[in-house]
Predict the structure.
Amino acid sequence: MTVGAPDVVRDYEQAGFGRRLEPGARPALVLVDLVEAYFRPGAELYMGTDSCLASAARVLTAARSAGVQVVHTKVSFAAGGVDGGAFFRKVGALRHFIGDSELGQLRPEVAPISGEVVLVNGSTSRRLTDFSADLGARPLHEMTVTADDGYPVHGWLVLPDGPGPHPVLLDIHGGPYAQFGWKPYDEAQVLAGAGYAVLLTNPRGAAGYGEQHGRAIQGAMGQRDAADLMAFLDGVLADPSYPLDAARVGVLGGSYGGYMTAWLLAHQPDRFVAGIVERGFLDPETFLGTSDIGWFFPEGYLGPVEAMAAQSPMAVVDRVVAPTLVIHSERDLRCPLEQGQRYFAALLRAGVDAELLIFPGESHGLTRGGRPRHRRQRFEHLLAWWAKHLPVTPDRPGPDVASRHVS
């Protein structure tokens, strides 16, 4: 996948995050994120004030030792006026990039490491840091599958240890205008460490592949995006290179990923052994009056109120048959708690084996910024649910998730 600077910025231009970088502009740029940083001798390192740098001090030290001029500014391009913070968020999660001031474009680079600082000198490179030595992060296996209409669906597979065949989890990101990328994803690492093969993909509706890709699901949520997700799942399962158990598949996701998990559980009842619906956008009509983005999000994506029922997981909850764990946070203002509570109640009325887990005092951002004990307890519940309903060893039932609690 080749992404030039104008194409990358155009996505965020649509959301009002700055002007497009015009063709021919030549930024002296090196991107730094949790993904990959490449330093060209004599280049300038631009750091947006809201860029994601967990180890900023160490990165700056390594950069300066390599002779890189560090510039603290939010606007990363003198030419084009592009918002640096938005550019970091957009490009940093996509791939490993070198900013080339001579070519005036971003060049994707494949590297076997992630989150490290690398000095690039012509055709050679030298690794300057080793921040991730103790993490033992599992590699991302990049894959592109062709959808039923010929469209390429891009994503990754994270494999557990052992010969397999491994049970599979389709993990769906939020947004929908967000993305999985090359940076380490804690949830995929935890699940793979427990013995599951984890699939991550960016179906149409996701960010990072241009405006048309992002807008493809407007007025038709649950259609093209669902088809892309299933195409990626089927394509990966059909690949003989990977030891996967196609008969033992689960699905999970949060926010829009929770929406899509609930949607797939209803529309693909024979495909998934169990599911986890987390902080989901589940009933667009009540979302209108309760969410902090309810005044524009449902109509912006689904269309007028009369079109919402056809795109609502709540309207098809009676089709769900797979055991479903519903997770929500008490103080979620984005996807309010009532979304999860009402969906859980509807599952029970439909006779589904369902559990409801509520984290007290937490917000929509629990998985990223919640209390450490809650984030750990959440992973414990995820693993207990999958051990019970999709055990790594099929003949070994897991613990009862209901026996656990949060505080």
